[in-house]
Amino acid sequence: MNAPAVFTTDEIRVLEERGAKAIAGAAPLMERAGAATARAAAALVPDTGAPILVVAGPGNNGGDAWVAAAHLREGFHRVVVHDAAGTAPRAPEAKAAVARFLALGGRTVPEWPADLRPGLVIDGLFGIGLARDVEGPLAILVNRINACGAPVLAIDIPSGIASDTGRVRGVAVRATLTITFIARKCGLYTADALDHTGDITVDDLGLPAAFFEGSRGTLLTPDTVRNWLAPRPRHSHKGSFGTLAVVGGARGMTGAALLAGRAAALLGAGKTFVHCLADAAPALDPAFPELMLRPLEDSPGADVWVVGPGAGFDAASKRISPFERKILPELLARNAPLVLDADALNAIAASGTLKQALAESRPAPTLLTPHPAEAARLLGRSTQAVQDDRLSAARDLARWFRAEVVLKGAGSICASPDGTWSINTTGNPGLASGGTGDVLAGMTGAFLAQGLAAPAALRLAVCLHGAAADSCVARGVGPIGLTASEVALEARAVLNRWVASAHAAGRTR
Hints:
The protein is of the alpha/beta class. 39% of the residues lie in helices and 15% in strands. The chain has two domains: 5-215, Rossmann fold (3-Layer(aba) Sandwich); 224-508, UDP-N-acetylmuramoyl-L-alanine:D-glutamate ligase (3-Layer(aba) Sandwich). It has 16 helices and 19 strands. Helix 3 (59-74) packs parallel to helix 4 and helix 9 (343-349) packs parallel to helix 11 (372-379).
């Protein structure tokens, strides 16, 4: 299955212009969008005879709302339009829809109708053109939509959500369903938007499939990644699946390195070494004796290195640790893939020399797995600035450091140096617990060790990591109290189901 395409707002604008030219002489895009909204509304409204309240704002989003209202009225639905714009719409299709609606006895109101108990609210207040925070009377209107108790259908994007970043601009509508047009907008799938969109359905308005080819952005879904790892040949041995080494686990944080090592072994690395940096490092992981724990100086080498979980970087300390002074520079110079996580990223962010070595001198693939604060340190920005535009932050990191990057968080974003990017659709709040990032780093290293290319290894790990958390929650484990160890164990089970199902599907074709 091809990965679903997703676009930035600027890219959507180009598609709109091309689409309008392509359908010249046919039903305009606004008419098609309004008709699609009406169909979605008719399927969503309760069968109680309660009226549909359409909130129509300025611009094309409001025009779509007027067209939807006219179609619903023609279908004998009770419809009331709250004309929040207060001025006549500009688009010819919207003007014609207003006339049709009124001619059919439709009711319009200039204020929120306090006497109305709607069965459905259609949010046509703001679309992808929102350029400032929603404030004043319009913010009050958004809050009334959210408090009315009826299902909410958002047109194109919930009003108040920024279409590129997914952030709330002041306040935002909380939709039950969002029907988005032409193509998927990146802001629907990350950050605050995940708590505002409800279910998402896409209507391409009848535009040719060729319009959407060559997208730089895609969505990561289980259906698109489940066959990336091939079934294992029966004539296999542990050397077939690579040797992985984890470097981290300073005093008080050995658990982080062990979690990464366990995840690597559970997800298929042939051999896994863990090199803890603590002075009194354990010689054995009693719960997972398959791991080989050795001092770093006794390392036999590895095909892939996962560096940083619990490595113990202290930004406030004036003393440069051996990890920063010797270990990390040597690992950056190795001709082997590196997964850099946690304190490795913090140490690099604090050192111009290490930054330069990462950006200019790496002879092998590099994968970075920062959370927003770590990304902010690498970029020299505030954490809030990173969260305000997660896609830009991830793309900048990939370009600056010539690395595969995942910016972790709600709607994790993977970015590559060639400018392509993906937004993950799996996961839940159960992943907001200590150690889950260490597990993700180990999973990523495991897929590299098994021979996947760096972009695929990172994206498969990210999608599977979230899918494992979803699987745990589906069977009653979490989200509250879900642990990193449980995620790693579940990821093994989910991956084996994916590989088996993909293999079975291949045999039946």
